[in-house]
Design a protein that fits this description.
The structure holds two protein chains of two kinds. By secondary structure, chain A is α/β, with parallel strands linked by helices. Chain A folds into five domains: 102 residues, Glutaredoxin (3-Layer(aba) Sandwich); 211 residues, Rossmann fold (3-Layer(aba) Sandwich), CATH 3.40.50; 84 residues, Roll (Ubiquitin-like (UB roll)); 89 residues, NADH-ubiquinone oxidoreductase 51kDa subunit, iron-sulphur binding domain (de novo design (two linked rop proteins)), CATH 1.20.1440; 55 residues, Alpha-Beta Plaits (2-Layer Sandwich), CATH 3.30.70.20. Chain A is built from 25 helices and 17 strands. In chain A, strand 15 and strand 16 form a beta hairpin. In chain B, strands 2-1-3-4 form a four-stranded mixed beta sheet, with helices on one face. The chains are: A alpha/beta, B alpha+beta.
Chain lengths: 595, 166
């Protein structure tokens, strides 16, 4: 028995800011101070509050140390772990109250409104030890399904819970399973989509890194429900930690008889293999993903036949997203009624969002469906840094849209987001302030889809490219108002005619910014100006009266666009200026203005 | 899928690498959908997938070279070009982008005088614009091999590159 446990976050955000070194230093210092028998260091998955990494928590007190440095470790060990005196100075300051007492992490603004179901073990257990998972009721749901429930009962329970696909489209999970169960075949497959490709989303990654067994358990339950004996996890190759921990988890589960033949003494056989993606966004589309597992170019194919009829290797297949699976064991264990008590009428349960962009508390949050964007941004996220104003939030990545400030009180669920022209998507939630240009953001996503279009169907391959050209014209001040109409028409054409979800949703970022920020497009076209000062071709640099005539900018300017005598105010020739911004970096007096 | 120019650096695979690759293919080729895992192993062995390596894969699997080439060029992770001793990745995921990673990326380009997917003439640095690497809390982020640099502004770049001069 240890009297104290130190949990150090081993998620990607924290390891990138040095949590491995923190861990090593802790172990060393604990040994040095003779505490190795009393204090245990555990590396866990993501805590969620990535902005404050590296993060560590000391139990039983629950003291939350943030932005920990290696130099702080000796003090934390000798003061806190040895003498029992919490080092308040190094704690997350929101947990330190004015009277000096410490409040629990669950009472902080960031965690108070969260409700963790899919992430419940992330940041709590060590992901590299199956026993830690089992101690948190792990594999009990599988045992319950195999010994107390028929496959049909499992499907009924999932259907009754109202669980919908967390990958973005929101298809009812139970219905998907029942289709595959109804088809007879000598072999069926259960696949997990862990190819999280939305640029700015890392929910699935955190589940895989922090609680890999929950995915394995859920896939085994799904296998039992539809009658499959083989599963594949298609995982993003850029997630080395996730791949490593999944492999450990699979090996351990096999060793414990929780994967393989005759699971838990029943006659149910199920095994899982990993397949690494290779960086193609379109492989998040279900038919493309399966084609990729088969070893081909990951191009989608027309549906029907749906994967439940002819999927992987032409056999009935179900494919669910990581977060969807992460909910399954809890539903089996605690019942459909428990799950459906959370959320809104048509969107049950919780949703994990990766909160990023212009927000104080960047990180991972799990909230009940129906929470408003305002609660996420202002309460949980801590608002916008530097006193700037909220302009929009982007959800659904390259397939989604922007939610403007006047829609900030809409309760977030699948249907509401669609109604306001965005979508749930996999859970990326990027906050933007007044310094972000919405045309530029639309262009950013279009560049992404043009790059990632697989090229199989013409509307997507050529349509998105033409759309990007039109957008580029806007950002360069060369577009006309007719171009705006053309853009809109083209958007609808691409949506209606593309083969797969990638093309069908690719115009969404353009349509939603046109809908809510049309005046910004018009400013680019009519006034030839970018209100946010982002679009380089429209930006003008000028020199104000702060200029001391020091000549530093004129000497640094690569094209000689700045002229003026010593100790006299300088001027920039806009025709020569290439808008590189070097003058602004150089000026010590804040005399260069960008408009 | 962006355009890729093929580098002129000659292939310098060793017989040991080839033996290793053929062994790996032997081990993997029975599993369904073996081509992807084999190419991933090949890239681990050689660092990239030049046509010489693709030929070995095609020959061992008894499939047309064109099929191998088709798969290699489809996926962003497979590279036809060798990588630098120091692989630089600048995240252009959404969270980093809205916090100014494009400026960071442009600064790296101008400092090294190379573009996306290129390698410097001395083979020291290669540069890639990456998708979200999952540490949005540190945005904007850049990686040099396994080192991660966060909360960057363009002015930080020359100092960081100077650390990798050997």
């Amino acid at each position: 028995m240890y009297r104290s446990h130190v949990l150090v976050c081993g998620g990607t955000g924290c390891t990138s800011s040095g949590s491995h070194q923190i861990c090593a230093e802790l172990e060393k210092e604990i040994k040095k101070q003779g505490l190795a028998e009393e204090v245990k260091v555990v590396m866990t998955g993501c805590f969620g509050l990535c902005a404050l990494g590296p993060i560590m928590i000391v139990y039983p007190e629950g003291s939350f140390y943030s932005r920990v440095k290696v130099e702080d470790i000796p003090e934390i060990v000798s003061e806190h772990l040895l003498k029992g005196r919490i080092v308040s100075r190094l704690l997350y300051q929101e947990t330190v109250q004015t009277d000096g007492s410490i409040k629990s992490l669950n009472e902080t603004n960031f965690y108070k409104k969260q409700h963790r179901v899919a992430l419940r073990n992330c940041g709590v257990i060590t992901p590299e030890n199956i026993e830690a998972y089992i101690a948190e009721d792990g594999y009990q749901a599988l045992a319950k399904a195999l010994t107390e429930m028929t496959p049909q009962q499992v499907i009924d329970e999932i259907s009754a819970s109202g669980l919908r696909g967390r990958g973005g489209a929101g298809f009812p999970t139970g219905r998907k399973w029942s289709f595959a169960a109804a088809n007879q075949a000598d072999q069926k497959y259960v696949c997990c989509n862990a190819d999280e490709g939305d640029p700015g989303a890392f929910m699935d990654r955190s589940v895989l890194e922090g609680d890999p067994h929950v995915v394995l358990e859920a896939m085994a339950i799904a296998g039992y429900a539809i009658g499959a004996s083989q599963g594949y996890i298609y995982v993003h190759a850029e997630y080395p930690i996730a791949v490593h921990r999944l492999q450990i988890a699979i090996d351990q589960a096999r060793e414990y008889g929780l994967l393989g033949k005759g699971i838990l003494g029943t006659d149910f056989n199920f095994d899982i293999d990993l397949r690494l993606g290779a960086g193609a966004f379109v492989c998040g589309e279900e038919t493309a993903l399966m084609t990729s597992i088969e070893g081909h170019r990951g191009e989608p194919r027309p549906r029907p036949p749906f994967p439940a009829v002819k999927g992987l290797f032409q056999k009935p297949t179900i494919l669910n997203n990581v977060e969807t699976y992460a909910n399954v064991p809890r539903i089996i264990l605690k019942g459909a009624a428990w799950f459906s008590s959370m959320g809104t009428e048509k969107s049950k349960g919780t949703k994990v969002f990766a909160l990023g962009g212009k927000i104080v508390n960047t990180g991972l949050v799990e909230i009940p469906m129906g929470t408003t964007l305002r609660e996420i941004v202002e309460d949980i996220g801590g608002g916008i840094p530097n006193g700037k104003k909220f302009k929009a939030a982007q959800t659904g990545g390259p397939s989604g849209g922007c939610i403007p400030a006047d829609k900030i009180d809409v309760p977030i669920d699948y249907d509401n987001l669609i109604a306001i022209g965005s979508m749930m998507g996999s859970g990326g939630l990027i906050v933007m302030d007044e310094d972000n240009c919405m045309v530029d953001i639309a262009k950013f996503f279009l560049e992404f889809t043009v790059d990632e279009s697989c090229g199989k169907c013409t509307p997507c391959r050529i349509g998105t490219r033409r759309l990007l050209e039109l957008l580029t014209k806007v950002t360069e001040g060369k577009a006309t108002m007719e171009d705006l109409d053309k853009m809109e028409q083209l958007c609808y054409y691409i949506k209606e005619n593309s083969l797969c979800g990638l093309g069908q949703t690719a115009p969404n970022p353009v349509l939603s910014t046109l809908r809510y920020f049309r005046e910004e497009y018009e400013a680019h076209i009519k006034d030839k100006s970018c209100p946010a000062g982002v679009c380089k071709k429209l930006v003008r640099y000028s020199i104000n009266d702060n200029c001391k005539g020091c000549t530093a900018c004129a000497r640094k300017c690569p094209v000689g666009a700045i002229s003026g005598a010593v100790k006299q105010k300088h001027v920039i020739d806009p025709a020569t200026c290439i808008k590189c911004g070097v003058c602004m970096e150089t000026c010590k007096f804040g005399a260069i203005e960008k408009k | 899928m962006g355009k890729q120019t093929i580098s002129k650096i000659p292939f310098s695979g060793t017989p040991e690498q080839e033996a290793q690759l053929r062994g790996k293919i032997d081990e993997l080729k029975q599993q369904p959908g073996a081509l992807m895992p084999i190419l991933q192993s090949a890239q681990e062995i050689y660092g990239y997938l030049p046509i010489e390596v693709q030929k070995i894969v095609a020959e061992e699997l008894n499939i047309p070279l064109e099929e191998v080439y088709g798969v290699v060029t489809f996926y962003a992770q497979f590279s036809l070009n060798p990588k630098g001793r120091y692989k630089i990745g600048v995240c252009l995921g959404t969270a980093c982008y809205v916090k100014g990673s494009q400026d960071v990326f442009d600064k790296v380009c101008s400092c090294l005088n190379i573009g996306n997917g290129d390698i410097t003439e001395d083979g020291r640095f290669s540069l890639e614009a990456t998708r979200c690497i999952g540490c949005c809390g540190l945005a904007p982020v850049m990686t040099v091999n396994d080192d991660v640099y966060g909360r960057l502004v363009p002015e930080d770049i020359p100092g960081i590159l100077a650390k990798y001069q050997d």
